[in-house]
């Protein structure tokens, strides 16, 4: 066995300020409130910066700035709006190393992922929707589709910059203006994005960024002058938002949790399936709404697949997220770590068998080893609830019909994976799986042209693709 030499990415490319203001009307402004909070690097618990905690007045000021900008922005020809979006996309590419390092520092995800997955997708999203801005009349929503107005957007911490791109790019392409609130634990790339908006000469007020916690998000979605609410986060908060905006006339899209089944048939290419299962649940420490957190494997190949999976897991490298060899980074927060621990401990109490490879954890920061539960029953909480961590529940099935039944036996319906060499079986399964996205012989693949979104408690509305325009047009 060769040992890996450390291959750390330098953090010199990022210039983190000790403290940040709010980005409103194209300017950095002080919050009206006294509250500030610190954002830390979850891999070391080092404080990275202090950010403002926007109050209701701050949110109001941001919404007013967005309202003021809406008139001219929506009246601008789509081909002009497209130029700004193309410019933003290009600056993101030019500054992608800086953005990737900052994302990894604030979130804990491996640099390999922020550099090779998040950032290319972020830029691709802006390029893609830039292309739509002057073609909205051909999007299938009538000859002259109108924007909605001011969009209030609230995003989670698992893909901070990517979720920002999913929200801001289509909104702007359609002629809306936005106020966005990033998650409390990962505000820094959104604040750097604000700087990029200035660098691109985006008209003031088209994009406003207000940092803060849940109350700031609530103030934003409840603001009477917000026309559109776009939320990505937990089902619990999504439910609260749906309740609070009901009857207000605001248009809403909700992208919530998931408990996806990754289904492996006995005729699948097993080595490939193992890679797909690993990618499905251990990518981004399992902090992925569409993670393949339930492995359904056909009984006749279950032992073989599990052996191969365990061998593969033993080679995963957990540690410094800035090291280019790292596969598994830090858990994003102490609170999330506590939740993963609680559900995993419950898995054992309920009778499932827990396994992790030998995996030393760093002393500081928040860490959880890749973990597999076998002997999982459908009634177990680890089979029903979203763990949102590197924890896989393994169940078996005998027939395709049983696989479908088990896969659909969940209140969620965001994604699913099917591994088989038979095309006909893929189509048969895809017809029956109640999931917004069904991947075949792959998993966690994203493309800005492809719509994403869920059924049931995974939310409503679609992001990405032509479908994603509908959420920001008055149709
Ligand atoms: P969360 O607690 O729902 O938080 C999401 C965002 O909402 C954060 O910015 C949060 O602010 C804010 N927020 C909290 N309470 C609010 C309220 N009452 N009103 C308005 N905003 C409020 O979820 P999370 O723990 O950050 O994220 C994990 C969840 O997101 C998982 O369930 C995951 O499945 C889901 N997710 C879904 C998708 C998808 O596309 N379907 C993508 C990624 C994640 P603070 O951070 O300051 O609390
Ligand atoms: Mg942080």
Describe the fold and architecture.
It is a single chain. The chain is α/β, with parallel strands linked by helices and 475 residues long. The chain has two domains: 19-255 and 455-470, Aldehyde Dehydrogenase, Chain A, domain 1 (3-Layer(aba) Sandwich); 261-440, Aldehyde Dehydrogenase, Chain A, domain 2, CATH 3.40.309. Helices cover 40% and strands 16% of the residues. It contains 15 helices and 18 strands. It has helices at residues 56-75, 78-94, 96-107, 111-132, 160-173, 188-199, 214-222, 235-245, 270-282, 299-313, 334-349, 381-384, 400-408, 423-432, 467-470; strands at 19-20, 22-24, 27-29, 36-41, 46-52, 150-154, 177-181, 207-209, 228-232, 251-255, 261-264, 294-298, 353-355, 371-374, 391-397, 415-419, 437-440, 459-460. The strands form four sheets. The protein has a seven-stranded mixed beta sheet with strand order 13-14-15-12-11-16-17, sandwiched between helices. The relative contact order is 0.14. Bound molecules: NADP nicotinamide-adenine-dinucleotide phosphate (NAP) and magnesium ion (MG). GO terms for molecular function: oxidoreductase activity, acting on the aldehyde or oxo group of donors, NAD or NADP as acceptor. It holds the Pfam family Aldedh. The active site is at residue 255. Residues 28-474 form the Aldehyde dehydrogenase domain.
Instruction: Quickly give the CATH architecture of the largest domain.
Output: 3-Layer(aba) Sandwich
Name of the CATH first level of the largest domain: Alpha Beta
Beta-strand level of the residues, as a percent range? 15-25%
The total strand number stands at 18
Superfamily (CATH H level) name of the largest domain: Aldehyde Dehydrogenase, Chain A, domain 1
Output the number of helix runs: 15
Q: Write the CATH fold name of the largest domain.
A: Aldehyde Dehydrogenase, Chain A, domain 1
Q: Which segments are poorly predicted (pLDDT under 50) over 5 or more consecutive residues? A: none
Terminal CA distance reads: 60 Å
Sheet with most strands: strand arrangement:
13-14-15-12-11-16-17
